[in-house]
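Protein: M23 family peptidase
Species: Paenibacillus paeoniae
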Amino acid sequence: MKWMSKRFTFVVIPDANQSVQRYSVPGLIIVLIPALIILLAICAALFITLFSGKASTLKDVKHQLSLSESGYEEQLKEREDLIAALEADVTALSAQAKHVESRMSEITELELQLKEIAGIQESEVRISSGVTIEEGGQGGEELPLPVQANDSLAAETLQELSAMSSQMDELKPSLEATKEALLKHQRILDITPTIWPADSRKITSTFGVRRDPFTRRAAVHSGLDLGGDRGDPIYAAADGVVTLSERTYPYGNNIIINHGRSIETRYLHLNKRLVEVGATVKKGDLIGELGNTGRSTGPHLHYEVIVGGEHVDPMPYLKEDREEK
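Structure follows.
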């Protein structure tokens, strides 16, 4: 390597008319310059190679970003379509819910009328499963439903509401018919002598053939005798119109009430009559006082039920007590 410490002279002859120029450089420079050129060439090659790879990667990334952007736009459009569909479903659900609520109000009102007619008392409403929901601590993780689940749920709810609305539309005429039938049945009950005409349940003589207390001979007893104290209240056994209110022998003070459907009731031996002919009475109304007038051996009510002009046994009709007013 001694030559590297030597100096080398370069002669430059520019022109025949110009002087020769000489340049003296160390030997080390002669080695460094080619080495530097080679190093720069290698660096340039490496840079070009790396840049080409990065450019390819960048191109791929741009392509992926383009695809992702397209996918996001498509998903966004799908979400917007779903949201629009949900908004439409919510609007339809709201309208359907109002319709169902209106129908439910009508049916609830009809139900209350039916309960009133039937005499059903309101009771505490409980959940059908037997589980009651009360105030207290609550908790648990909230898990949101997917949009598709919400959409499906809205569609199912709308379908169920439509089905409920149709069922209620079908149910209302049936309930109306039931109401009319109940009103008719209630009216029949009101004009049927089903309550005891006195507070007393002491039967002193039944309907049918018996020994007459005066003649001691067999005779037909046309009614039911209820013992009691003079002045005890006597009640109308059913709704009706008073067609007779008088005092005659052997009936004493007596009242006849026409209940319609060819049914009459008669109340004999009263101490006092409290209604007159033409009066309209309701089942359980006070019409007189128990007494001992006419052909009677002691204070009692002789009660008769007359159907189609014939006396029948009152006992099968006596099914309930008078309601307190």
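Remarks: The helical segments are 27-118, 147-190.
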